Fold these 4 entries.
Entry 1:
Amino acid sequence: MGKDLKGRELGKGLYQRKDGRYEARTKINGSDVSIYGFNLRELKKEFQELKEEAQNSIDFRRKHITLNEWFEEWFQTYKLPVVKETSVYPMKNKFYGSFGKYLGERKLCDITNIDIQSVINQMSSGGRAVSSMREELGRMRECMESARNNQILSINPCFEISVPWENRQVTRRFLSREEQNTFLKTVEHSWYKEMFYLMFLTGMRIGEVGGLMWKDVDFNGKCLRINRSLSCQYEYGKKMLRLLAPKTHNSYRKIPFFGEAEEMLLQQKAKTDSLKKVLGNRFRATGEYADLVFVTTMGSPVLRYHAEKEIKKVVKEINEQEAFESVQEQREPHYFEDMYPHAIRHTFCSRCFEAGMQPKVVQSIMGHQHYSTTIDIYTHVSESKYQEEIGKFGRAVEPEEDGSMEGPEKGTDTGMIQTFG
């Protein structure tokens, strides 16, 4: 309770200032409401009117704010300060392609549980991936829960929503040793030879490969340090290139030189230095990109696009050669399966396990945030070895060397002993 200068009680939110003026102040749903005046009676009357006006203004906002308007306010206040810069456009784009598209102009307070379910149903019938629907529903639920916490909604309509289950196994592409050798043999004369060798020898993500700088290469300590990732995405039709922090905290790591890693890096250094001399001012990787290890033939930063394009080219060349040889040898062709840059990362991980490395060590080298990711690949390798070991058992009765097989003599178990001996 406030008091006047003589110590008399004035009422809640009221008090008298030293200059003699009375002040009335309060908060209505987080908004300050205050007023000054010398006439206490008039001040109280005006203060009451001001509070009613503020309350009505908030009530009006509650009744009329649309989903899209609230999403923008919520995203700006709660998400923008904490999400990665590269995540802002994709997150907003996905919202406006789902709930924003179907319910964006609806008043927030009019959206019901059945409206949310209807959007999910439309997304499902339109062929939207289950993972995408679950991601968007989760973000919508978070947005609406914030509206409830801010007293714009009394309940969150996003609970008890049915989303189809996706019963499918994620199949990772691993290259066998034979496939790996064939691939690297084919890239022998490619501009990107050293890059692909290093990918097979480090398991780096393609963004980490693109963001690797010479200052990250420790020739004395025989290791690489992963400190950043190169990101490229289109935002509102414009290509945006950024050097960012790695994917997760665990992605900051040190990778020792395996196999021919040092040799490949020295070759790459010589090749890049030569290219800079040839291109001069036309060398495109300048400014913050000037120290990049891997560049294109024009000195531009290497993006996922360049790696994918070169991989397709290599696979095509391998399969064309296989088609030719299979005709010459009059046999069925064994074509090289399509692959992508991340398949090389999976392959490196499997090679680590084949070499007998412990899962925790492999997790550290790979920069996996979750141990389960490492174990999934370990399980794949273990299952492959399991099948190999089973294959060693052979038949119950092996054929004789000349191709004939004679059974044991009647009344003896000599044949059985010989079979399992």
Entry 2:
Amino acid sequence: MSNVMVIGIAGGTGSGKTTITRKLIQRFSNDVSVINHDNYYKAHHDMPYEERCQLNYDHPDAFDTQLLINDLRSLKAGKSIICPVYDYTVHDRSSKTILIRPSKVIIVEGILIFADPELCSEMDVKIFVDTDADVRILRRIVRDVRDRGRSLESVVNQYLNTVKPMHETYVEPSKRNADIIIPEGGHNIVAFDMLVERVRAHINNNQEKK
């Protein structure tokens, strides 16, 4: 499937990456497949829970990015993949998997996807969602306490000890690899509409070739 458009959506934690991804799925449904970098966190089944809690999950080494690259290439070649699933409540890879089918547009989403040159080279459009740090940490607190069973204290400690320094070391500098920077993420209607038109043109162009 050489006529596949790969869109990378990066940005700091809580920046609004998922909002943009969700809106694109709503617009184009079956023409879009999504791979989340978060699902490619390395497995640590042999490590006690207390030790897993102490790991730095915001460093590039926390991810099996090569597996994601291999899976992305399979999707681009028209093959379905079995994607791993990460369980945030236990800080480990789950026994569950997700079947992801190839499609005309593939979205790769994650905080560190632009920090890997090999992964970047697989993308046609690279979007960095740029949102104020205060907004991002508040969203992170709400999400982790509500959806991931974390305590407020653990979220704040993780943010100060690893999330913030890793953002400044890896995520923010990777912004220079982006083709498009969208301030305020999914709330930036002008930028989102431009992205929608780019995707629509790609899908329509593929349909005309058939």
Entry 3:
Amino acid sequence: MVSRGELFSRTQRLLEESSVDSPRFDTQCIFEFAFGIPFPQIIMDRQQLVPDELSKKISALAKKRSEGYPLQYLMKSWEFMGYEFRVGEGVLIPRPDTETLVTQVIDICRENKWDAPKIVDLCSGSGCIAISLKRLIPNADVYAVELSVTAVAYIRENAELNRVPIHIIRGDALREGTAQLVGDADIIVCNPPYLTAEDMMRLQREVTYEPETALYGGRDGLDYYRKITPIWRSSLKDGGFLAYEFGYNQHEAVSGILAENGFEGISLRRDTAGITRTAAARKITNNTED
């Protein structure tokens, strides 16, 4: 048997040699997952021997991580907005950038004094946006729209895990028929696929394990914005908001699409890295439309 300290050093060294971005952090996560207790308790006694079966489990996890397999998939769950979400192959991993979108929606509700808004989350994936919004605005009527059968299963599991009731619709956000299932929304929020063809050619190895359908947004990354904006505009109340996340340097193009489709007061937000990451705009009231 090997000691906890030696196994930790060996694991971290393997990840360092494999060019993992944060080898120490990843090693700590692997140890917590394998032992089932917080890391400080694990390493308190570095000389304590690790049972062979547990040592083999840790080594197997470390090997997979060294090959580029996402840490989040190995852990089977990840934190978003301070809440736990189950994740795995076939569903996009929640990222801190997307917390900017949730925060912007929360601020819209606060500014408009909406304590029970109807919110629709398109391309919901793991459900992290929809479920976080329901937890943060308990009286909200929240819908999660997702096409992937695998992702829908994760949304259901995560809603149960976080003990929140939301409406789950399996449907294609790019089809008018899906939009007709949900009307009179106060806010429609969406983090669609937005990577360009060029982006897809230079993905980090970890990202290649995530579903391409949740990543690729067409040649210029804007296909979903062009299709979703006119389709879902009719599902918004007059004065309702459409809020998007997008990729690096896409803010002008997305703002243009919103303006062309009858939205005004476009508000942009930066993420924690200082990158313009989200936009929210209000549907222009027009009594003669529709």
Entry 4:
Amino acid sequence: MCKLGAGKKLWIIPDCELPEEGEGILKGHESVIVVNDSDADATIKVTLYFTDKECYTDITWHVAANRVHCFRMNNLEDMCGFSIPLNTQYAMKLDSSCNIVVQYGRLDNRQTNLAYYTTLGYNE
């Protein structure tokens, strides 16, 4: 029997903003963590939305069945060669071939008191 997996196929992360790396041991970054607990590999189409330009749609992620993967927004390989502009508001949509669970995190150390937060995306 095929296990469908927890989560949903469509996720929206509305508050993205890739910070500069900053100073110190911990470097500023954004990440999206995807858990695929289904019996099928997930193919995830990523759409980026910007306030002042057309959306970008040429990013595809893959997460194997019963695996977790962390994608970093400042990693060109994870972003299929697309360079996220620093300090720019954008949003992200993930459209998966199977149910997944998505968590977003941002580490911002542009000031002495660094800020880190994480949240689940909106799912439909």
